[in-house]
Amino acid sequence: MQEVLKKNPTEKRILAPRESRKTIGNITVPKPRMVCRNVNVHYGDKQAIRNVSIDIGRNEVLAMIGPSGCGKSTFLRCLNRMNDTIDSCHVTGEILFDGRNIYDASVDVVPLRAQIGMVFQKPNPFPKSIYENIAWAPRIHGIVESKSDADEIVETSLQKAGLWEEVKERLDQPGTSLSGGQQQRLCIARAIAVSPEVILMDEPCSALDPIATAKIEDLIEELRTQYTIAIVTHSMQQASRVSQRTAFFHLGDLIEVGTTETIFTKPSHQLTEDYITGRYG
Amino acid sequence: MDLGTRKILDRSFTAVGVTSILLMATALLVVIVPIFTGGIGAIFFKGTIEHRKLQYNEFGKGDLDVLQRQIVETDSYREKVFRMLEAFEVEMELMEPDERSAYSPKYKKVRDLLSHLFGPLPGEMEPILLRYQYGVTRWDEAEESLHKLMFVTKWDYSNPDEMAKPYFVPRSEEFEGTALAGLFPYMESNLENMLLPEQTFYWGFITERSLDAHIFGGIWAEIQGTFFLAVGAMLFAFPLGVIAAIYFTEYAKDNFFTSILRSANSTLAGVPSIVFGLFGLAFFINTVKVSESKSVLAGSLTLAIMILPTIIRAAEEAILAVPKTYKEASLGLGSTKWRTIMTVILPAALPGIITGGIISLGRAAGETAPIIFTAAVSVGATIGLADVFSSPTPALSWNIYNLASEHEAANEIRHVQYGMVLALISIVLLLNLSAILLRARISKKLKG
Description:
The complex is a heterodimer. In chain A, 36% of the residues lie in helices and 24% in strands. Chain A contains twelve helices and ten strands. Chain B is mainly α. Chain B contains 17 helices and six strands. The interface between A and B is medium-sized, with 32 and 23 residues.
C-alpha cells in the first residue's frame, strides 16, 4: 500500500514542466470551418484555458474530452461567445469563422450565435408549446414570415431531429411535457431551425438514459452530413462512437489532438493514455 | 440522540406549530366575525318609513304609491301623539309659573326625543341639516330611542366606595296626572305603526354617496376614492418597479453604485408610512406643486413611492427565479438581450411580478398615513375621472379612522364604520384572491 502511494505516477505528471504540456498531434485540417489560435480564457485572475490552438473541420464531429474542470466546456462556450454573459470572463487569441475573428469588436454576436448554434447539458426548452419552441427563433431572425413558412420549418427541423413522428399530433403542447430525451432532441431541432453552420453540444446526453442517449448519438451521426459539430462529453465511449477527431484537455491545456481512432488506440501523451484507460477522471 | 427522544421532539414541535397556527386563526376569527356582522348590519337591517322617505327624496328610489299610502297610515298614528302634545301645551299655559317652569325642561326632553324619532314636529321650522329633517331610519335605533323616552336614567351614588350605578325610572311618573300621561303607553304599543319597520336590503350603502357626513347614505365616494388612489399608485409604481427590477437583475454590474442602490431600496421598504405622507406633502404638493393642495394625483404619487420597493423586490425575485437555462437557450439561438428579456424572461417571471403587484395594490388601498396630508378628505363628493388632478377625495382607510375618532356623531353611526371596514377588507381580500387565481392561471399556461 505504501509502495503504491509513493509511486503515484499521475501526480508527478500533473505537476510536470510546461514543456511537456504542449499540444501533441496535428491541430490543423484541410479547409477548416473554424480556426482557433492561441486562445486564452481568464475568469478574473484565474486562467481557465491556456494557448489552445485547434481547427474544426467541415462536416466532422470533434469530441472534446478531459477530466472535470479541464476547460473543455469553457472552450466550447468561447466558440459562439456564450462566455460574454459572464462578466468576469476575458478571452484573448483568435477564433476565426468564415475568415473573421469572432472576437473582433465589429462582430455582432446576434447573427453569430444563429450561425453557431448551441445545445446545452440540461434540456432547456422554453415554457412554450413545442411548435413555438421551434418557430420562435426563425421568427425573430426574420427567416420565416408567413404561417406556412413557420409550419414548414417546424416540420423539417423536427424531422431532422428525429422527433416529428413522436410529436406531430401534439405540437400545441408545452415543450416541457416531453421526456428528457425528447426535450433534448427538441432543443437540437430548435438549434437547427435557424439553419446554423456549426452546432456546439455541451454534454448533451449527461442527463439522459442510455436509450435516449443512443437516439441522440444516431442523430449526431446524421447531422454531421450537413453541419459541423463540436461536442463536449464526459463519456469516452460516446466520444469514440460519434466523433471523427478527438481533443483531450487537461487543466486548461489542450494536450493532444488526433483522429478518434488514434487517440483511443495509440495515444501519444502519457496523460491521454492514463485518462482514457481510466487511471484518473 | 436516540430514537425515542427524536420522536418526542418531533411530536412536540408539531404540537407547538399547530397550536400557534390555531391561535392565529382564532385571533383572525375574533377580528373578522364582529367586523363581518357589524358590516353586514349596514346593508341588511330593519328600515323604518323614514329610511324609505329619505331614499325617495334623495335618490328617487322606491314606489311612490306605496310610500304615500304608508305615510298616510303612519301619520294617522303620529297625529294622536301630536294631539297629546298640543293638549299638554294648552295645559301648561294654564299652570302656575313655577309649576310651568318645572315641567318645561322635562317637556322639552320629550319633544327632543320625539323629533329624533319622527323628524321635525308640527309647528317647528324645517331644519337646515339633513340629519334633523328625518326621524330614525333604523328600527334598532328607534327601539333605543323609545327606551330613552319611556325611562329616565338616574344614577345611584349611595355607596361612596363604588362607581355610581345607573337605574331607570319610568318617565310617565314625571307627567302623572297631566294630558301627557297617556303618551307613554300609547308610544310603547304603537311605535311600530308609526314607523312601519321592514326588513331592508340597502344595496345603496355601496353604490350611493353619503348624505350629511355619513349620517345617511352610502360609501360610494370612499370606495371610488380608494380605487382611484390605489390604481393611480399602481400606474406609476408598477412600470417603474418592473423596469428597476430588470435593471437590477439584468443590467446592473456588481459594483459599489449598485449595492448603494440596492440598500437604498431596502431602506425605502422599511420607512414608516407616515413619513411617506409627510414627504408627499413636502415634495409633491409644496415643492413640485403637482396640484394646488391635496389631490388624488398627489396621493397616488405618494402611495406609488411607498409601494415601489415592494414591487421592485417582488419583480426582482420573480426574475431571478427564472431558470438561467432559458436565458442561455435564448441567447444561444442568437436572440438579443432585450428580446430575451421581453419574450423569454419576463413572460416566465410574470406570475411572480403580477402577484407582487396585486399585493402592493392591496397595500396601497389600505394605507391611511400617506394620504392624510396628500389626498384624503373626511367629507367629500364623489369625484369624476377628470378631477383626479386637482381634487382630493374621501377614501375608505382615512374615513374609517375619521369615523372612529373625529366624527361628531360617531356613536350613532357605528354601522357605517363597520360597513366601511368590511368594504375595505373585502376589497383587499378580493385583490389578493385575484392575485392567487391569476398566478395559478398564468403558471398553468406556462407549464401547460
